[in-house]
Design brief:
Main location: cytoplasm
Shape: globular
Protein name: D,D-heptose 1,7-bisphosphate phosphatase
InterPro entries: Glyco_trans_2-like, HAD-like_sf, HAD-SF_hydro_IIIA, HAD_sf, Heptose_bisP_phosphatase, Histidinol-phos, Nucleotide-diphossugar_trans
Number of domains: 3
Largest sheet: 8 strands, mixed
Strand order of the largest sheet: 3-2-1-4-7-6-8-5
Helix content: 40-55%
Keywords: Carbohydrate metabolism, Cytoplasm, Hydrolase, Metal-binding
CATH superfamily of the largest domain: Spore Coat Polysaccharide Biosynthesis Protein SpsA, Chain A
Family: Belongs to the GmhB family.
Structural class: alpha/beta
Length: 496
């Protein structure tokens, strides 16, 4: 039987009781444990029914669903973590189908997504705007309303990125990082019901805060991020044009330029009317719904543009100095000698000793993350590898951690760069979070491993570094001319 833990982040909604009752009475293998993570700033009582399954409650104090899910899976002791939202209702056979979904997965599949069903409105009524929005979950990719991950994969990539403060994009971000690290994701056969959401009059306006999270997605994955998550282009361009049209109309009007104000106002009115009609016509056409769509269609474009601008500014702010620096070994700290098994051949790169001395004097933890497939290939013995690494420390001083992958490329391990295992294990050994680390290396695999783990990265190119790797690093990380400059970038000071 496949052992699994159910993790549910919650804000104490009454629907949590329905979810837990469905798990209690479900057909099939029961979870080893249900971990409820109360993420309210002021936690209170939770609506818990009588349960024969062990239930544990954790508190995260309003840090958001990403932090809540991280707390949940890290506390779990099983190989699989099944994430459910607190407003869903698994079908009666959900446990049995989950077991079937997971048991059939090969080792290179990291996760299984459940099938989300959003009930249609009763009585043949056409759905409201908020109901249509909820219905989109049925076709969304990799949402954690019902998503089961291998725990080892979550550990390898560092879990959810807690810079996503809302229940928005944090699940897509995790899935993309998992796929970048070399794993696959599959849809399962189990089904989970997700009731339609019914927000207040201005719920659609408040939802525009998610545009700030879109800025972080673009920063992390590039302009093609929507394509990567299986989405069509959004309306931000039109919203921005609408906002500019309205602002221009007001500005020209205040300046007494009536013709220009009229032209700009016509642009604003036309775009706003098109947006409102696009939302009104598929709906129930009740007076309340029409009024809500008309008012919010005026407010959404400037709200979307402002939140996106704030997000772009936030993600471009200089990040704080690294709390730990992780170095690749060959061609970063020492000259590369292919499959070196002789300590006498160890030669530090220029400046390495001075850079490391200054980092240690400043109290910055340092570590090494290195692929050494020569062991798997039979070209280096473990004893020879240890002797070479000991010589590195003899010449360059001690490192807080050595994380070395001795596997070959086809071994399917979780540690070989560009997978993130070495980075996440090094961060754990140094007592910091991966996001607070900077990885310095000489090839694209070093940069990709850092990104997959949620760390920052600096590339120091050598003659063997490919031009495409340098171009990618300039776009997604940073590029330095030598080791001293790389450390300066990591510490937030080019002249460090």
């Amino acid at each position: 039987m496949t052992a699994y833990t159910v993790v549910v982040p919650t804000t104490g909604r009454d629907s949590l009781r329905t979810l837990l009752s469905a798990l209690e009475h479900g057909i099939g293998p029961r979870p080893a444990e249900v971990v409820l993570v109360d993420d309210r700033p002021e936690p209170g009582d939770l609506p818990l029914p009588e349960m024969s399954v062990p239930v544990r409650v954790l508190r995260t104090g309003g840090r958001g669903p990403a932090a809540a899910r991280n707390a949940g899976w890290r506390a779990a002791g099983t190989g699989w973590i099944a994430f459910l939202d607190d407003d869903v209702r698994p079908t009666a056979d959900w446990p049995s189908r989950l077991h079937t979904d997971l048991a059939a997965l090969p080792d290179d599949v990291a996760a299984s997504q459940g099938r989300i069903v959003v009930p249609a409105p009763t009585g043949g009524r056409r759905p409201t705007d908020s109901e249509r929005d909820t219905a989109g979950l049925a076709t969304a990719e990799w949402i954690t309303a019902d998503m089961a991950y291998r725990r080892e994969v979550l550990a390898a990539v560092g879990g959810f990125d807690e810079r996503f403060p809302r229940a928005f994009r944090e699940d897509a971000d995790l899935a993309l990082r998992v796929r970048q690290a070399g794993w696959r994701l599959k849809r399962g056969l189990r089904t989970t019901l997700h009731p339609a959401r019914h927000g207040g009059f201005f719920a659609s306006v408040r939802a525009q805060r998610g545009n700030a999270d879109n800025a972080l997605m673009r920063r992390k994955f590039g302009p093609q991020w929507r394509e990567l998550v299986g989405e069509r282009p959004g309306r931000l361009g039109r919203h921005t044009l609408t906002t500019l049209g309205g602002a221009a109309a007001l500005g020209f009007g205040a300046a007494g330029k009536r013709s220009a104000a009229a032209a700009a106002g016509a642009v604003w009115l036309g775009l706003t009317a098109e947006f409102a009609l696009r939302r009104i016509l598929p709906g129930p056409m009740t007076p309340h719904e029409i009024a809500k769509m008309a008012v919010t269609s005026v407010l959404i474009p400037p709200a979307a543009a402002c939140h996106r601008l704030a997000g772009e500014v936030r993600v471009r702010r200089p990040r704080p100095a690294a709390k730990a620096i992780l170095f690749d070994r060959d061609d970063t700290l020492i000259r590369d000698e292919p499959y070196n098994n002789d300590p006498k051949l160890v030669r530090p790169v220029p400046g390495a000793e001075e850079v490391l001395r200054r980092l240690r004097a400043a109290g910055v933890p340092v570590g090494v993350v290195s692929n050494q497939s020569g062991v798997a290939r039979g070209l280096i013995t473990p004893e020879q590898l240890a002797a070479v690494n000991a010589r590195v420390e003899e010449l360059l001083g001690p490192f807080g951690t050595w994380q070395v992958c001795v596997h070959a490329e086809g071994d399917g391990c979780c540690c070989r760069k560009p997978k993130p295992g070495l980075v996440t294990r090094a961060a754990l050994a140094l007592g910091v979070r991966p996001r607070d680390c900077v990885v310095i290396g000489d090839i694209g695999a070093d940069i990709e491993a850092a990104r997959a783990a949620g760390a920052r990265a600096v590339l120091v190119p050598t003659p063997r570094t490919r031009e495409a790797e340098v171009a990618a690093a300039r776009r997604d990380a940073a590029v330095a001319g030598d080791l001293a400059e790389a450390v300066g970038l990591a510490m937030g000071d080019r002249a460090w």
